[in-house]
Specification:
7-stranded mixed sheet, Gyrase A, domain 2, 4-stranded antiparallel sheet, alpha/beta, 2 domains, globular, 20 strands, Alkaline Phosphatase, subunit A, about 375 residues
């Protein structure tokens, strides 16, 4: 996708506010038209792009039978840390500040990995907005998060799910029981739950692999069982944080083989499909032109002042975290760095960029 960006499209940050309005909480808009109900479960399947679900509908009969809210995209970059924080806060990345898998800390010039949270930063300061779950709890609705126990208290969890009880689970079976228990614990309630296995399978084996289809079927069966166990007055919403594509090895460009592309670049961040380039002062336009000339129509290159349709309004506190130049890969191309991000070269499935298979996400409504 090139050109107009996300202007006018519905984005992942609208899901939880729509749930809040459907639950009857004041101050929220139901822009997605979700049905009114006293209880909601919002279940995110990491990596379940809408295009993938449609292509493999036969492997997911339950999910494919549900009504989908049309034309919802995750936002840019199409990556877990940004999308989960957008979902959790109800605002876009240009405001909440989690702008990529890796990004620069302006105060130190160091690179933050937002999954590992490997810099000494307070996530509640880095991402200052309250979560929608927190706001709903303050409005008198019982709100909670059900997630892998290992994620409790992590930087990303604080950014995206803070302010409500966190129920740590250690198995799929435990998750089903806990979600049902917490949703039944109050007459008005909302619970967020998360599933990571499909994304892990896609990165490792590819999203066109037999293993990926088998995992999709497993998760589909589990979600059908969850729907059966939930109270009948509960709406189940199944969504995702991004889609995924497989990359052939011949389209993996290693920037370290063309070092002149890194001239005037002080720090390289982001991920293979969406690179942040932090340049020396005054060099952004020159760097952008150099990348456009070298990589041509395999990428879309923009400078920071042309990114609001991708990131939403960009606050002054967030601007320095976004690359002076960003490079969004198109088609099945990507920009690697064997020196800085060697592990990415071992992967099969990728996401992060602005193509429709990466952006489009399901918002499946099970009543």
């Amino acid at each position: 996708m090139t050109g107009p960006g996300l202007a006018g499209r519905r984005t992942i940050d609208q899901i939880m506010p729509s749930v809040g309005a459907a639950l009857g909480a004041a101050g929220f808009d139901n822009t997605l038209g979700l049905p009114d109900a006293p209880r909601y479960v919002v279940f995110l399947v990491d990596g379940l792009g809408l295009d993938l679900l449609r292509e493999h509908a036969d492997a997911a009969p339950f999910l494919s039978s549900l009504h989908n809210v049309d034309d919802v995209v995750c936002g840019v970059p199409s990556t877990t840390v940004t999308s989960l924080t957008s979902l959790g806060t109800g605002v876009r990345g240009g405001q909440h500040g989690v702008v990529g898998y890796t990004s620069r800390v302006p105060e130190t010039g160091r690179r933050l990995n937002s999954l590992k949270w490997d810099q000494p930063l307070d996530p509640a300061v880095w991402q200052p907005f309250p979560t929608v779950l927190q706001r709903l709890q303050q409005a008198g609705i019982s709100a909670s998060s059900v997630n892998d126990a290992k994620f409790e208290g992590t930087g990303l969890t604080v950014c995206s799910q803070r302010g409500v009880p966190f129920h740590g689970i250690n198995s799929v079976y435990e998750r089903l029981d806990v979600v049902v228990d917490v949703i039944e614990s109050a007459p008005r309630s909302v619970t967020y739950a998360y599933e990571s296995r499909l994304d892990h399978t896609g990165h490792g084996k590819g999203c066109t692999s037999r293993e990926w289809r088998e995992m999709l079927t497993t998760i589909d069966t589990e979600l059908a069982e969850l729907r059966d166990e939930l109270p009948r007055d509960t709406v189940l919403v199944v969504t995702a944080d991004h889609g995924m594509i497989d990359l052939p090895f011949e389209n993996r460009f290693d920037v370290d083989t063309e070092p002149r592309l890194l001239d005037d670049v002080d720090l390289l961040a982001g991920e293979a499909r969406f690179r942040h380039l932090y340049t020396r002062p005054g060099a952004a336009d020159e760097v952008a032109d150099r990348w456009r000339t070298m990589l041509g129509d395999r990428v879309e290159v923009r400078t920071r002042d042309g990114l609001e349709d991708w990131f939403g309004p960009i606050s002054p506190q967030v601007a320095g975290r976004i690359g002076d130049v960003v490079v969004a890969s198109l088609g099945d191309f990507a920009v690697f760095s064997s020196r800085e991000f060697a592990i990415e070269l071992k992967m099969t499935g990728f996401h992060g960029s602005i193509t429709e298979p990466e952006l489009r996400i399901p918002v499946l409504v099970g009543t």
